[in-house]
Amino acid sequence: MSYAKDTKMLKMYTDNRVKCKCGHSHFMPVFLPHKICDWCGERVFRNEKEEFKYKLEHQMRKRR
Q1: Element (H, E) at 51
Q2: 6-31 burial string, b = 16+ CB within 10 Å, else e?
Q3: Dihedral sign for Cα atoms in the order 59, 60, 62, 63
Q4: CA–CA separation, 26 vs 40, rounded Å?
Q5: Is residue 42 within 8 Å of 22, Cβ to Cβ?
Q6: What is the CA angle 17-18-23, rounded to 5?
Q7: Which end of the chain has fewer CB atoms < 10 Å from its terminal CB, N or C?
Q8: For 20-44, how does the pLDDT look when each residue is reduced to its tens digit (9 = 90+)?
Q9: What pLDDT is stored for residue 52 in this prediction?
């Protein structure tokens, strides 16, 4: 690989990294809204909007 490809790939990995509440960082692909942390077992969401959508759907299912 060339230097340009290496830096582009490294930037992609650093931009798409999300930290869990336990401190463990995860690479989050664009097509996943959330992931399960390998260390603590909690859900790690891409952003606050995805977390809100998940919690809202979960509450709506509970009410049925």
Answers
A1: helix 48-63
A2: eeeeeeeeeeeebebeeeeebebeee
A3: positive
A4: 12
A5: yes
A6: 120
A7: C
A8: 999 999 999 889 999 999 999 999 9
A9: 97
